[in-house]
Design brief:
319 residues; alpha/beta; 2,3-Dihydroxybiphenyl 1,2-Dioxygenase, domain 1; 2 domains; four-stranded parallel beta sheet; 12 helices; 17 strands; elongated; Aldlse_KDPG_KHG
Length: 319
């Protein structure tokens, strides 16, 4: 897969932006970055699109800025010259797709049925947009189409919102989702960028779904671990289960039979996607120990942070 598309997959959610005035580009980019989504698909529906992309790409180099609603090769040239790193179109125009491929520009054309998908495969693509997602059958349609096209991934856009986002992202053939509910046009026009930041952060937290999984307590030996877990189990009506290296009290407390990571123990934080959580937290200057990472079916399932917090090691775990 293209490197840019891999980055989009790690981000998970692409804000679809319509800008009527290029003066709003910089504050909007700032709001998205501060909210935790350093990415934007700026649609070429308006006269301000090209300049908006140029401003975002130059003033916020950490952002992954692309152009959407690209209908012609001339628009491809303008978008790329302005700094767009990827191209998105509402439908599959073979001429535009071939042109992007020749230029080495990642392109995700719109598809809504198997015939569109087969055209995309014939052109050598491994990622397509699914648009308009909800109106075209939603996740059930994507699942039906994904079955025969095993190596293809989809980026659904159209009708994606905070309520159905995680349902889409839970399906492994979804690369990322495109959405506009956090960057509504009326908020942009009114200059309510603080509200956009808040909605963006809310969307990111919804997508990642952080929850406390369990707390691990370092014990000196097996006997102390049994007593520690037994105390929690007795107080809170939990089942005590002894394993090879620890004793659990329900799913809340893990008493280690010998000292493990962390001065006092460890804290496990569950998330909807370890890969996306790592990408987000690294953008917040959190460091991870990749030697501790575990994988299943190509997806990261466990990883520890490098630094302890309050004497506890912290690790992410896949829900």
């Amino acid at each position: 897969m293209n490197e840019v598309l891999e980055k989009i997959q790690k981000i998970g959610l692409v804000p679809v932006v319509v800008l009527e005035d290029a003066k709003d580009a910089a504050p909007l980019a700032k709001a998205l970055c501060e909210g935790g989504l350093p990415c934007a698909e700026v649609t070429f529906r308006t006269a301000a699109a090209e300049e908006s992309i140029r401003i975002m790409a130059s003033e916020f180099p950490e952002m992954l800025v692309g152009a959407g609603t690209v209908l012609t090769t001339e628009q491809v040239d303008r978008a790329v010259a302005a700094g767009a790193k990827f191209i998105v179109s509402p439908g599959l125009n073979p001429k535009v797709v071939k042109y992007c491929i020749e230029k080495g520009v990642p392109v995700t054309p719109g598809t809504s049925n198997p015939s569109d998908v087969e055209q995309a495969l014939e052109l050598g693509l491994d990622v397509v947009k699914f648009f308009p997602a909800e109106a075209s059958g939603g996740l059930n349609m994507i699942k039906s189409m994904a079955a025969p096209y095993t190596n293809l991934k989809f980026m659904p856009t159209g009708g994606i919102n905070a309520k159905n986002l995680n349902e889409y992202l839970a399906f492994p053939k979804i690369l990322a989702c495109g959405g506009s509910w956090m960057v509504k046009g009326d908020l942009v026009k009114a200059g309510k960028f603080d509200e956009i930041t808040a909605l963006t952060r809310e969307a990111v937290m919804k997508m990642l779904g952080f929850e406390l999984k369990h707390i691990g307590i370092n014990c000196a030996d097996e006997d102390e671990a049994e007593k520690t877990a037994g105390a929690f189990a007795g107080m809170f009506g939990l089942e005590k289960v002894s394993g090879n290296s620890s004793v659990f009290a329900g799913t809340m407390v893990e008493a280690m039979k010998s000292p493990f990571k962390g001065a006092n123990g460890h804290i496990a934080i569950a998330t909807n996607s370890v890969d996306r959580a790592v990408n987000y937290l690294e953008s917040q200057n959190v460091e991870f120990d990749y030697d501790t990472a575990k994988y299943k079916d190509g997806r990261m399932t466990v990883i520890y942070m490098k630094n302890e917090i309050g004497g506890f090691a912290v690790h992410l775990v896949q829900k």
